[in-house]
Design goal:
2 copies of one chain form a homodimer.
Chain A (H helix, E strand, L loop, with lengths): L11 H12 L11 H17 L3 E5 L6 E6 L7 E7 L19 E3 L2 E3 L7 H17 L5 E7 L9 H7 L8 E4 L11 E6 L1 E10 L5 E2 H4 L6 H11 L21 H8 L5 H8 L12 H7 L2 E10 L8 E2 L2 E10 L5 H15 L5 E10 L2 E2 L5 H14 L4 E5 L4 H10 L2 E5 L14 E3 H20 L1
Parallel strand pairs in A: 3-6, 3-7, 7-17, 8-16
Antiparallel strand pairs in A: 1-2, 2-6, 4-5, 5-18, 8-15, 8-17, 9-13, 9-14, 10-12, 11-13
Helix pairs in contact in A: 1-3, 3-13, 4-12, 11-13
Chain lengths: ~450, ~450
């Protein structure tokens, strides 16, 4: 079944007016002062879905409620669960907003408001897409909505919620629209996220701080030792030296590398955007490959000795660093943490003792680019944008994806309607009107295409 | 002229009673609450010297006064200036003192009191030595006393004072007794101190903190870069890699190395005392050689990124470290600072910019062990201890010595009466009665021997 072109059937004024109503609710999940507003936004979404003929509930959690809704049309049809969040980032710094964050305003084709792109605008595009389809008749697939109110504070209630509602939340695919397309003219499907292993290295030298005059040259210096350890974790080619680190890495395929090489990326623009003159990194890989497809090791924090003004001639008793490793599909966070815990003592210089503390990890996740769902998404995007989607990955670790993958075992489909220039989390967050409307159309076509696959 | 054995002529009870009077004055220079007491201690010393027939003044400085006294007996005789300080460290932690810090108490042959060894006891031994000689007749040399009240706070008034009184303070040798003998049975003459070059390294990566998921692997990480730089500053043999760093080092002579090797030093005891299991350092040199006779490089502080609890996945925009290099005779602090300022940018990895800020430096100083003054000191010590002195150096940088050397151009003779076990700066500071009395005898013999040389 295909409805054909729905574009002419979309009431854009109405779609925008409804979104504006949602954007006006200051559902800042991080700020207790807005707790009632967060709930009000959840209830607003629930009521909307109920009005569309869904069975819709507001499920309590220890903090902000989850909107759960479903419309099950036919057990023999695929089931699609749409994830999103109705909470938003705080507005700070308030003085940098050109128009108030909770009074949505259109300028130059863009809707300015906190949450316009992240994620009210994108989540509501998916809701409106379903509604658009419903105008044509019954839905071609079973649809569940799972719209939470804690995403901007790390979704603390999500794992227990998923565990408690495991059976109810079964689906063939989970759709998430909460990010950015690669570029304006490039519809994008994200099929992988990196994982994470995060440790803290502690180095102990003498049993007390020592005077660097009386002891310098003879006593072990834990800061020098820590630097030596960290320097040894990578070689001259930017490769991580931990034995076994790369053993389980699923190599990038030629197709993936070709696909990414064809994307409109400029190293010069990338360098300009962060103000650097060179991009060190693992030799033999492009910038996109390094971010999306290769594991990395970054020190996220370091400390030891005297950090104040002026000079102090002390040899510190101890020093420490926080070190995170982004992992790629195939790698296992627990195993990688174990490997670095075994390796650091081996490369520590004589005279110091070391400890490597496990902070937390996250599974890398990758979905097959030739899955039925991804192919369906590509067809849907093609109908809107007139071209095939770029298949991208993301360098970050998205805990909700690992949770969906681990607890529900469900494939996740990222179909993003936003752009980096929307400035989510920043002042003057915005969402192009065109992207919002295209999102609605994409959502409708996606369900159709999923119904056809 | 030699007086022969003065031991029987020393009134020990009287000498101890006078020292106790001085020790009872809480002349804590760091604490404004004791400012009047500091002055009282200075005045006490001045009055004592005046009573001994010296022209004695209390010279004002912006903070605590200097005691200056002189007894010029014959322009054709050598002039000896005795330096010391009448101020003391704070008593903290007060609760750890077994007897009150400003109520001198004798236990097991030791005088317990703040300042007992550092430096009231040692400085007053020199005063009493002069008085002992005066009992026998006129002094064999011209004697000047320069006893300050700011040593424990870094002698802020000393350089201006020396500059203002340059002509008056001329001497053939300056005697300082403000440290420790190498070991109980080892009279010690210290003939060299290390210098210092202290810099701060700043590393800048991107123009803002970045998310390690979105940028990790591609963006430069200034903390990793800083660690790499620091690790590269030394090679596998513990040698500093800065080109030209060792060029001006005056090598240790075979005599020096033999002399130090003969001293009662145990690496195992040294390791036990600081709680480490190995002593890394420059290969090919003993522990004493590393501390006294070789330049070193120690990171004294490091910082960057997230230092709080838990984990944060940030790539910091900047990182920094404080790095000090102890220098040995021949090396010049300004030159060394310039060398590291040139070298760090060369070894910095691509993608970061670095800056090396000059904090301050200090000249290394070494005096000839065959100088007339040192030979005289050795003869004096031999008369007291029945054996030759050990010729040691110290790993620290003593600014006053560099100031004497640079401003007055005068040789400095360290003849220490204390021991490490006296615990200067710690609770329950003490000074062995025997060491105090031997100090008085040494001081008297030293002036005789200097008069004979």
């Amino acid at each position: 079944m295909t409805t054909g072109d729905l574009s002419s059937k979309l009431n854009r004024d109405q779609a925008q007016a409804e979104l504006f109503d949602l954007l006006r609710i200051p559902s800042v999940s991080a700020d207790p002062a807005y707790r009632a507003d967060v709930r009000r936004a959840g209830e607003w979404v629930r009521a909307k879905l109920e009005g569309m003929g869904f069975t819709a509930r507001l499920d309590e959690t220890p903090l902000h409620p989850v909107v759960y809704a479903e419309r099950l049309v036919d057990p023999s049809k695929p089931t699609v669960m749409i994830y999103g969040h109705y909470d938003v980032q705080p507005e700070a710094p308030a003085e940098e907003w050109k128009t108030p964050p909770f009074e949505p305003t259109v300028r130059d084709g863009r809707i300015y408001a906190r949450g316009s792109t992240d994620d009210k605008g994108q989540a509501y595009a998916n809701i409106k897409g379903v509604e658009l389809l419903l105008q044509e008749g019954e839905l071609p697939v079973n649809v569940k909505f799972f719209i939470e109110g804690e995403e901007e504070i790390g979704s603390p209630s999500i794992v227990p919620y998923l565990q408690a509602h495991k059976d109810e939340l079964t689906a063939d695919v989970i759709v998430i629209s909460d990010g950015s397309r690669f570029a304006k003219d490039v519809p994008t499907i994200t099929y992988g996220v990196r994982g994470l292993s995060y440790v803290e290295i502690h180095v102990q030298g003498a049993n007390r701080d020592l005077h660097s005059g009386s002891y310098g040259g003879a006593a072990p210096n834990p800061i020098n030792a820590l630097c030596e350890i960290i320097a040894k974790l990578k070689d001259d080619q930017g490769r991580i030296t931990i034995p076994g680190f790369y053993d389980d890495v699923i190599p990038l395929t030629d197709d993936e590398r070709k696909m990414w090489a064809s994307l409109p990326h400029s190293d010069q623009d990338f360098m300009n955007s962060i103000g650097v003159k060179a991009l060190p990194g693992e030799e033999g890989f492009s910038t996109l490959e390094r971010i999306w497809g290769r594991p990395t090791l970054d020190v996220n924090g370091i400390w030891g000795g005297y950090q104040g003004e002026g000079s102090k001639t002390v040899i510190a008793a101890k020093a420490g660093a926080k070190v995170s490793m982004r992992l790629v599909p195939g790698q296992n966070p627990e195993k990688i943490t174990k490997l670095i815990q075994e390796y650091v003592p081996q490369i520590a210089p004589a005279g110091v003792s070391v400890e490597v503390i496990d902070h937390h990890g996250g599974q890398p996740v990758k979905f097959a680019t030739d899955s039925q769902a991804i192919q369906a998404a590509n067809r849907a995007l093609h109908r809107v944008y007139g071209r095939d989607a770029a298949f991208a990955r993301t360098g970050g670790s998205i805990p909700i994806v690992a949770a969906f993958s681990e607890i529900l075992g469900t494939e996740v489909l990222f179909v993003d309607y936003g752009l980096n220039e929307d400035a989510p989390h920043s002042p003057n967050e915005s969402f192009a009107q065109e992207d919002y409307f295209n999102g609605i159309l994409t959502a409708a076509y996606l369900l159709e295409e999923l119904g056809n696959s």
